[in-house]
Amino acid sequence: MAFVPIRYPIRSIMVRWRASLFSALGIACTVAVFSAIMSLRNGFEELYATGGREDLLVYMRPGATSEGESVLQGSQVEILKKERPEISRDADGNMVSSAESYLALFLDRVGGGQTNVPLRGVEQMSFKIHGDNIRLVEGRKFTAGTDEIIVGRAVADRIAHAQIHETLTINVTPFKVVGIFENDGPYGSEIWGDFDRFTAALERPFAQRVLAEIKPGTDIEAVKEEMESDKRVPAKVQTESEYLISQKNNLSGVLMILASVLSFIMAIAAVLGATNTMLASVGARTREVGVFLSLGFSRFAIFLAFLIEALLIGAVGGLLGALMVLPFDGIETGTMNMQTFTEVAFAFRVDGNILITGAIMATFLGVLGGVVPAAIAARQEPCKALRRH
Amino acid sequence: MSLTKLVLRNLLRHPIRSGLTALGAMVAIFLMIFLRSIVTSLDDTTKEIGSDRVITSSAVSLFQALPESYINKIRNMDGVEIVSRFTWFGGYFEDPSNFFAQFAVDVNIFKNIYPECQLKEEEWKTWADDRKGCIIGSALATKYGWQVGDKIPLIGRIYPKQDGAWDFNVCGIYQTESSIFDPQSLYFHYDYLKETMMKENNQDDFPCGLFVLKVDESDQVAEVCREIDSIYDGGPQRTLSQPEAAFQAAFVSMLGDIPTFLGWIGAAVVFALGLSLINTMLIASAERIGDMGVLKAMGFSDGTCGSLLIAESLALSLGGGLLGCGLAWVSIPFFRKLFGTQIPRYDVHETTILMAMGVGLIIGLISGIVPALRARRLDAAQALRSGI
Lengths: 389, 388
Fold this sequence. Notes:
The complex is a heterodimer. Chain A is α+β, with helices and mostly antiparallel strands.
């Protein structure tokens, strides 16, 4: 069976380059919107997926679904920190555990408006627990027992008075920013300071959670079960990564719905556009089709030729769409995480998966737009087609 | 044959193409309205709110409660008519995904602060008399099939109870005509919360989430806010008093960059629509060169020939646009259901429709003008020769 040479659809696109480009751009817009939302979701998910560790346990009040809802009184904290057998010890024999307090503060954004920024009170042991996950990039750590704080990179950039050497007032106490740190997870959107100083400044004499490093080989499931029904201090226990993953659900789902709904609707418009272009293309070449048919090319070969033309338009659209969305990669943005009610900063993450999905989608949309016109072309009667001017 | 009829005939020359283009315009206009409506609906939650209401909360954090004793000073201030304690309960029914707002309030004061909350007089009375009583919004009642007399068990995440769930008796189902009063909330007695929690935790005080005040005259709002905040400026807990509208607006502002992002998507949609329409019109005008030659040979002016194409393009964009507006209008109930409590008051504004039709008009004009300019320049003889 003879196929129409591939040169034919390519030439045809070149001849009608303006119309082809327009419909390719329509497809490109659809793909770009889809990819942009998916890369936003990607960045958000990555924040929670990569930030947590499996060998850290989070102890909260039973029933709490996030730190903000949990309250642990001083006596409970002491028992958890000092008496749990699964917690490991450092070289000096100290338990590797720390109390953390957490409160979302109203702070002013750079450029106006207020937002909720998480404030985390930590103990010196916390730095040992978090280890290299907290990277100080400017200044120094806060000194224990003083009114000094360190802030995540995103906070320094987005919040007023949070640059190094500036002073941030918490309730009525001024705190001095002495360092800026980075973290791949949500901690990078937080303010950290001395646990006891925050307790005093906020008049909140309790902790939100205990974080501890566990001995290798600990049966985590057994600990969870035991703590749930513990007589003295019942607690909800999760690994740090489980905890972080449980904090991401809402926005991620919303973005997924948004991406699906928007790209579906835009795809309809893009397919309509591609169909139009292909219809015009077929219409203008009715006579050529007649020639092909009389030369003995099969109807299927003709169908294929026009389908390939549509596919190429889609592929070009995919390429253009990728070019449109690539500049977004790495752009920092921020929104409220409904689970914790605090602002988290994250970046658009365009990765291979998204680009490939986009390319497949674009090609598919092109083909979809080409099916009907290609079928119309293939069904012409040779004599009639030749007679048309 | 009149020129209008000619435009119509031209449109019907390729019914599929015209149909597809109009459908494309419909989809794009619909999307534009939809995206814009998300933003306006979010903003709406803050408008038309009673201008005589003030909310006093912690200036430090949304999650920081205030000492209950603050209410005594606030109540006795000049210009303050009544004050209710108000606390976000944050519980859930059976599963954490069954989320709706619950508030603990001072029942009799709440009644006078929120005239938006419409309840039968006898229901107000039974609620006031039942310590464990609550009222629920009509939409919430429909969602879960709850009726007056039912018991609603809620699990407290922020206020856990040793023996499990809190039980609330439904004393009434409130209606509301106001677009800012959430029909999916539950209100119950503040004292029930306070007394239970003090017993659970063996504490002798219980801080309050926030205070809702009604001022005597709405022009006193700013003054009252300033005065309250100045009392507690030195601590122990600083307060932030603001009109209720400003308090709600803060929640929208916390969404951060999302509205801007939706705007960008809207721009991409408009861009795509413009491209598709220009494309169709270029294709159409290329086929019409012969027609143009005939018209010009018959003595029609250059301007008339051009305006035929503009009219055709406008018919496509505005016709499709009107359908898009209709679709946006019809789909309001669907999106309300889809968004649920995320955007409880999804609505399409008249201004949004006007804006979308404006964009449709501009795109229609531009898409018509490009080929129209070409048509104007055509020489009749040449056009006749190349066209037929």
